[in-house]
Write a structure and sequence with these properties.
4-stranded mixed β-sheet, alpha+beta, binds zinc ion, 21% strand
Length: 282
């Protein structure tokens, strides 16, 4: 391996997931055993394998495809486990391409500690998006990347794309909080808007476009607002937006007080999405 190649893979010898060096047991088995996949950064739960984001990514969008079973090496895994890991690769790569527009990828299995596996006893395949020129500054920064995007934002983008890949009929709800943090954007029927993506349009861009079309002056993606558990397909994105004052919004959309929606049909979704992000009306 060339020296630049060595540098390229060196960060993978370090810890990958939060608390790898101060956590009892296997980090992958532990994450899989938890309920809150948004917190654990699990993007997909399959029958035999799952997809999880790396909290200490080598690059934006660094994810891992991991067997559910605690096996150290491909020859220890049942063939259908390896098959499912392979099957997941397509949706993962397509989702990363749509959400983040990378120019390429590094894909890799590091089997055993000498080969660079940070978690040596639970197999995992790295998928690292790459952009033209990104290798130039990586060696300087060593293990700490300057991340151009916050983890919750990347998580929301990827989870929405993967849900669309794996459940093509799934709908995406737009939870758009106004800057006053007391109002939420609703459609003419008083419901949280559903996002319709154009062909090949990233889901998160469709959500931004939807908010602007409904009258927002600007919009910003904050994170995921759908089901916490990645085994479920209910997608929702959380946005923050500014709205003109004293203006009727297009298409009958309007801003509804958060309190009103917290008793309606969208209440469960809204409660989960908002948590501590809004203030109750006086
Ligand atoms: Zn494990």
């Amino acid at each position: 391996m060339s020296s630049s190649g060595e540098r390229l893979w060196t960060p993978w010898r370090m810890r990958y997931v939060v608390g790898a060096d101060r956590e009892e047991g296997c980090i992958f088995c532990n994450r899989l055993g938890e309920e809150d996949d948004v917190r654990s950064l699990i993007l997909v739960r399959g029958q035999r394998a799952f997809v999880i984001m790396n909290l200490y990514p080598y690059n934006t969008g660094h994810v891992m495809i991991v067997p559910n079973a605690h096996v150290a090496s491909p020859e220890d895994a049942e063939p259908d486990v390896m098959s499912e890991m392979t099957v997941l690769r397509g949706p993962v790569l397509r989702s990363l391409r749509r959400a983040l527009s990378p120019d390429g990828f590094n894909l890799g299995l590091n089997v055993g500690a000498p080969a660079g596996a940070g978690v040596a006893d639970h197999l995992h395949e790295h998928v690292v998006p790459r952009w033209q020129g990104d290798a130039n500054f990586m060696p300087i920064l060593a293990s700490t990347m300057v991340m151009p995007e916050l983890i919750p934002v990347t998580y929301a983008k990827l989870r929405a794309e993967l849900a669309a890949e794996l459940e093509p009929d799934s709908r995406v709800t737009n939870v758009v909080i106004a800057d006053d943090r007391r109002h939420v954007l609703v459609d003419a029927a008083g419901r949280l808007p559903q996002v319709e993506s154009l062909p090949s349009e990233p889901v998160w861009k469709a959500a931004m476009r939807d908010a602007l079309a409904r009258g927002a002056i600007d919009a910003e993606l904050l994170g995921w607002a759908g089901d916490r558990h990645a085994g479920s397909a209910r997608s929702a994105l959380l946005l923050r937006a500014s709205f003109p004052s004293n203006t009727v919004l297009p298409s009958g959309s309007h801003l509804a007080p958060v309190n009103e929606l917290l008793t309606g049909r969208d209440a469960p979704l809204l409660r989960a999405a908002l948590q501590d992000r809004v203030q109750p009306s006086p």
